[in-house]
Amino acid sequence: MTEATATFDVRQLGPASVVDIRGDVTSGSEDVLMTAYADAGDARAIVLNFSELSYMNSGGIGLLVTLLVRANRQSKQLMAFGLSDHYRQIFELTRLDEAVGIHDNEQSALRAAGVS
Amino acid sequence: MSDLNEQATDDKAAARDATHWAKTVSRLNVSQVPAGAAGINVAGKRLAGPIQGFGKMWQKTYQVSLRRDQVTATDLIATWKQRFPDFWPEGNRFYAPLTGIEPGEVALIGMTLPGRMKLSTGVMVLYADDESFTLMTPQGHMFAGWITFSATERADQTVAQAQVLMRASDPIFELGLTLGGHRQEDKFWQHTLRSLAAHVGQPDAEVATAVVCVDKRRQWSRWTNVWQSSAIRSTIYMLAAPLRGVRGMSRRGRPVG
Question: What's the ipTM?
């Protein structure tokens, strides 16, 4: 439950930072996720790429909420793309979709983030 | 061959997803109301997470370390799920779903607040696996958020944990939490963990508590949540009980046909 089995790699794309998520996101992923957030630096938008997500439990969803709070506090947008139908439903169920912009693909997310 | 392995891994992950998470629901459905419970603040309500709440956002973690040779993480969670209401403090009732703590199931709750005020509410099981389960609150609950109960094995210990991620639902509950509600909630979960520890033969285990304010800001745009308040609705429901009784008697007295 608490072991980190996910990786978060950050790519800087102009005013946005894309975080490529791989593996299982659980409460044990807190440190690596927050390091990735710090690596994103001054980006105006944090774009989470879930294309390579294997699994996420409720602890992982809790982490996304705290990440969202941090981003909001620093006036950063939080977006996501690459969610499977299942995880789109989980975002709806937990009502995370009301605060995180969900996009079909990276291009669409980056466009929304103002990357031309 | 590697494609086949990949496919098998994907299928396994999909099966894990399907069994552990609740299905999407727009509004909660209460199929049966157990004797003594009231489904008034649950049926037809939407779920509300920390994003939908009003007050400051808190993460509260309560932990108790137990001897691993006496209980494993999976055994502890199985026991916790099975006997969840037994570990609660007196005066509070958790009406567990008939099928147990399973994803998507709704449980009703009867609570006693300070001043002997009775409150009817409930939760939905958002997520459940062998080592954890999460309960999420409906609109109108004291707080908007979820509680995750988990167990992990570290060296020779099994650590049981209850972690709450929440905001008070509305300004009234926020005031209540500030005026002693937080302390009462701490006591509630500390009692629960001590009872759990006692049940597995370790009554002297100490509960560690860590409280973090994740967001100091209040979401003033959410003050209208007060219209859904389970406290207000429970009070109205109780005050209207005599009226419902009179109405019921007059219906029974009316000739049929």
Answer: 0.84
